[in-house]
Amino acid sequence: MDFGLSEPSPPTITPMPEEGAARQVLPVRTVVLCCDGLYQRTLVQRARSHFHLVGVVVQHPPQPSPSRRWDRLRRYRDPRAVLRQAWSRLALRPYERRGRELEDRLFRPDGLEPALPVDVPVHHTLSINGAETVDVLRAMAPDLILVNGTQLLREPILSLRPQIRHGIVNLHTGLSPYSRGANCNLYMVLEGHPELVGVTVHHIDPGIDSGDIIRSAQVPMEPDDNFETIDVRSFDVGINLLLEGARDLVEGRALRVSQWEKGKLFLQRTGYHYEPWQRLQANRLLKRGMLRDYLTHKAARDAGLRLVGSAEEGVAARGSLA
């Protein structure tokens, strides 16, 4: 693809109403790195309301290696594991139906699937860290890169950071530093910590969800929620938080807070291997009283929780930078 010939022209500055105030599209060359999912396509669409979008890089899942395929097959040699997998998928359907209803309201308000733009260069890749992706990003020449849903960024992509004026900013669907890795909000529910279900906007560094934090927030919960609705809402809250945090960064008022503890790392190598039955268990825990108990005692459960971007955090962080 010839990015030089297909580069979009700068956008017209358009007012964007939000929370009672007009917003403008910032003339900052922005690229989104993401997978091809509903939430990520929504991120791309919403990003155009904030920034001059000059490109999108979409990572598709690479084919598993023969050893990885064998590991998956070996996991289901036990008939009980196969039955548990099948039963979990069936039992999850009522919970997933609720999640889909909320998903339709938040991400398909007009009944249509969000689509990637046709007037912006889109590069598809199996290797987000490959040399070809580096060349594509150099051609796009972004001042800001927004990330969600890709594999962990490594070299040589990380070597581009000094050339990107506002840096590479990630949306992590977990509350750093308390939780890092994959399926963080799911495992926090399973371990009895609904107060640690949240989202984090942070700078990319060589670690796993460990970069300096720009903003973080809990995911709001309602008394009739289940895990599927909480999960859907986490992406709606997270996408908006990413875009607001990126605006703060571009406009020179963003916080940059080093992570103050290691927290928990949820990865296969640390003993956390995702299976569908875990979602079923999380839904049942919430239904059987975990959510009700948390909302009843929310102030006490949230005591001591540190969120970046709250009024209190802003005062403390700016004081520490003085």
What does this 3D model show about the protein?
The chain is of the alpha/beta class and 322 residues long. The chain has a single domain (3-63, 76-321), classed as Formyl transferase, N-terminal domain (Rossmann fold). Helix content is 41%, strand content 18%. The chain has ten helices and eleven strands. It has helices at 3-6, 38-47, 66-75, 79-107, 131-140, 184-190, 227-250, 276-296, 298-302, 311-321, and strands at residues 16-18, 21-23, 26-35, 51-59, 122-125, 144-148, 168-172, 179-181, 198-203, 213-218, 264-266. The strands form three sheets. The protein has a seven-stranded mixed beta sheet, sandwiched between helices. Strand 3, helix 2 and strand 4 form a beta-alpha-beta unit. The longest helix is centred in the first third of the chain and has 29 residues, at 79-107. The radius of gyration is 20 Å and the shape is globular. The model is unreliable at 1-20 and 314-322 (pLDDT under 50).
Give the SSE layout.
Layout: H1 3-6, E1 16-18, E2 21-23, E3 26-35, H2 38-47, E4 51-59, H3 66-75, H4 79-107, E5 122-125, H5 131-140, E6 144-148, E7 168-172, E8 179-181, H6 184-190, E9 198-203, E10 213-218, H7 227-250, E11 264-266, H8 276-296, H9 298-302, H10 311-321
Parallel strand pairs: 3-4, 3-6, 4-5, 6-7, 8-11
Antiparallel strand pairs: 1-2, 7-9, 9-10
Helix pairs in contact: 2-7, 4-7, 4-8, 6-8
